[in-house]
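Blinded run. Sample ID left blank on purpose so nobody reads anything into the name before looking at the predicted structure. Input follows.
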Amino acid sequence: MPFTYFDGQLLLSKQIQIIKLYNLLGLEYGEKHSDTVKPRIMRKARFFQRNAHLCILASSFSIVVALCAEEFTFKMPGRASFRLDLPPARAVQASGQSWLIAYPTTGGTNRVEFGNRVVVQLQNTNDLRRLTAGRELKVARVVASNIFILQAPDAGTAAREAHRLAALPEVLASYPVVSRPADRHGCYAPLPSDSFFDQAINSGPAAQWYLENRNPDGSSAGVDLNVRAAWCWTLGGGVTIAIADDGVELTHPEFEARDMPALHYDFGNLVTNGLPACRDSGCAHGTMVAGLALAGINDFRMVGVAPEARFASWVIFTNGLLVDDERLMDMYQYASSAVAVQNHSWGSGSGKVQGGPTLLEQVGINNATLVGRNGLGSVMVRSAGNDRSQLARADDDGYVNDPNVIAVAAVSRSGRATDYSEPGACVLVAASGGEFGNGLFTTDLLGTDGCNWLNYFPPFEDMNNYVWASWGFTGTSAAAPQITGIAALILSANPNLSYRDVQQILVLSSRHFDYADPGLATNGAGLLVSHNVGFGVPDAGHAVWLARMWSNRPPLTTVTLTTTSPVDIPDGGLRIAATGAGVPPELGSIYCLPADVGQHADSPTSALPLVDIGEGNNVPLVNLTNKGALILRSSALFDQVISNAANAGAAFAVIYNSTNSGDYNLGLLAGTDYVPIPAAFIGNTSGEALKSLFQTNMAARARIQLNSANLFFDIESTLICEQVGVRLKIEHPVRGDLRITLISPQGTRSVLAQFNDDTSAAPSEWTYWSTHHFLESSAGRWTLCVSDEASGATGVIRSASLILRGVQIIDNDRDGLDDTWEQTHFGYRGLGPKDDPDEDGYNNAREQIMGTNPSAMDAPFLLDLSRLNQDLVRLSWPSVPGTNYEVFCTTNLAQPMVSVTNIPGRFWETEYCSPTIDSPQRYYRVRQHPAP
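Blinded prediction complete.
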């Protein structure tokens, strides 16, 4: 390639990157480029020019080298071509090795580094001397009879010689020693130095089990956030979180040097002060929230989810009340370019009555979403609410029921939704919330202020700066900041993500721990979702892994269809229907009330014989398979007698009143959140009549059915759905009588409202939002069902709108997979969104938005060995359910490996913990087997 000296610069015929040449020319860094070294340089320049790979410029002012456009092709042993680039920062090492960065010429960003030693494999060992004669190569190591490592003076020479040798037919392999980045898919951060984090394994009273929940042998003990798998990549640095609450104890040692004084603001007093307004327990809430989100790794007592995130304290409560809506509007938009994540552990406080943000607040929320973070949108995290016992739903809290926010439910240590956490179709994810008498360990106001007013003796004199156990933090308010911390980790790993990207990463990284939840369902995209916990509890390690490889989703498209034709709502729609010859007309449609928030007969149950099992206090001895159970009400709990019937095989249960009061004095079957079968409650008269009927009439059948007003929306175009909304205008004097559900074309049902004792009138207009249709196709018929489950008051639907949010695709087969994407990866259209052709655990719906190849494993099968604590090491690898993994181990590679365990695979990663005592260096191998 021609080159020209001109004014200290090298002019090449192509645009070529110029690099410094110190190591390639054997010069020390900083050596003056005098006339005494110029002859050395020019000799090398002529040599490089003859070899047509490198062009050198030397002058008294500068020495530079440019890599020309030729490719370097090696045999590794398969042929691979590379383009050399800048030398890495570690170009010269104490060992004398030098390195060059290279990229595959086939494209991509899989950078490698080539060193100054050449690996050679020959057909005939005797050829070695001939092939290296007169070259700058010396034998450094004999690996095998025909495999050698040759030493070159520098990385450039090694690359040229490897390229030359690779072109010879008698050379089987030739390439410079190569250093490649590995996808440390299972890396695990060191154990934090904070004293009470270590009790996560020991399950002490102040254990932070919600971050890492393990048994003493290192095995998983249940629900946690798996934060150490994220911390090996990021601790949340570079991200600022706003705690919108009653103030934060800014001088707490857990927050030292990480608050952002310029971003603090008291929206009640309009001053730049983020401190609590008082010193009693009523002003400790914000401090407890902040501890869970971002307490530091600093040798004190605890650590938060994002221990290197910065924070701003926004005070929005004055004398126990929220500041006015104008100031709340300002709050949402405050410092929106600097604050990435907002935590709102508060809501409307309206219980089961609908309420939410005012017009001004909606303006602030929308502006933060549209312009926050320079248009990427502020990430808003909200607690779902704590009024489950009142039959309240998150769907009725307009602060939570918003597609712009992340609604967070609370789970207990078992993984089941807590008895206070409000269910709702708008709930996205969940985190640990603590339970009564056993709250989460977190920060408190300093000293005897706040919730913990006791004094402690040394060495625990600082423990009154924290709360735990009976003082501990409990509620969805405690769950939300943990998700806020994960959002900060996600944005620290990839600051360019939008608020929608963060939501979808949380969806895809979440796991369920309560598979006995009867509301758990698989949506049309193959995602497990529940009204109790949304998509589950996020795995922080998986979330950060996704964030690091994530490409921003395309712009949002919204499609809205509206119907304004009035539709009457059938009164008293839930019915027991007895059918068959000889059935009296009055038993053909019996009014009943449902279970409170448990299984519901939205679709009619099968028509089956009813079997009287008395009070049902024990599991019936009779087989109730393909039958319904008729149960007399007793003092036993409703959920117990219904579960007893289900355990005997019953498909549904009908409980009838024990008092001789006709068909009156009915109530909800309270406490039936988790019963596995639908159930209904009828009056004594009807119950006794059914008992008599089924004792004598073998042909009679009964079922539970729901009569509702159904509206249909036919969608022609395809969106990959995100949140789906329903805007309703209903006239009805008792809102609590109504049950509202939405069914997607794939059959996924979102429960938007259900029967409760709210006696207020239905609002003139309310928009419900559901997360349950994430990644489903919008194409097809959507069905809106509105039923009235109490008799006596009637209503009418005045108008209804279906609002679809998502990404538009071309999808002629209407399966939710883009036609071009399918053609590119499969060559045809035919596989569905739930299919997983490469069997890596990521189905097509996931792979489509992840931007990964659905025909190849997304993560290489690499093992990671990390220290769990001083006694245990953690071996981990990418894995899929339905596969068993056999672990082999030895302490000496000269000895055969021994099988030590078989472990069923989990999504997305499986781990094995092993003692380190007496085995400081241990070798492992993992082999995959199909599950039996």
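Unblinding after everyone has recorded impressions. The first strand starts at residue 3 and ends at 6.
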